[in-house]
Design brief:
Helix content is 28%, strand content 17%. It is α+β, with helices and mostly antiparallel strands. It has one domain (5-108).
Length: 109
C-alpha cells in the first residue's frame, strides 16, 4: 500500500480538499460543516467518479452511485439505495485534475 497511515486518516473527512485547493488543484466547491451536514443532492443522478492511481500513474476509474435513495428523507425506511459501482471512463478534465492532485501529493510527501 502506498498511502501512509496519516494519509488514510486524512481522507475520510474530505477536509483535504481545502489543502488541495490551496495548492492550486481544482476541487468541487466545498463548504465544510460539522456533523449532521445537509445532504447534497447534486450527486443523486451522476454519482461520483473515483480515479485510481498506482505508483503515481492512472490505473482505472469507477462510478459510484449515490447511497441515499433518491427522494427519501433521512428518517424514512429504506433510506439507503443498493450500493452500485461500475467501471468508468473519466473525462479528460477529470483525468487532468486527478493527475494534478496526485502530483501535488507526491510533491508534499
Amino acid at each position: 500500500m502506498r498511502n501512509a497511515p496519516d494519509v488514510l486518516a486524512w481522507n475520510p473527512a474530505k477536509t483535504y480538499l481545502r489543502e488541495l485547493a490551496a495548492a492550486g488543484v481544482p476541487v468541487v466547491p466545498t463548504t465544510f460543516l460539522g456533523p449532521h451536514e445537509p445532504y447534497q443532492d447534486s450527486v443523486d443522478i451522476p454519482g461520483e467518479t473515483a480515479l485510481v492511481f498506482i505508483d503515481g500513474r492512472f490505473s482505472h476509474a469507477a462510478n459510484k452511485a449515490a447511497l441515499l435513495a433518491v427522494g427519501r428523507a433521512p428518517t424514512e425506511k429504506k433510506l439507503f439505495a443498493a450500493e452500485t459501482m461500475a467501471a468508468a471512463v473519466p473525462t479528460t478534465v477529470e483525468r487532468e485534475i486527478g493527475v494534478g492532485a496526485v502530483q501535488d501529493q507526491d510533491d508534499a510527501y
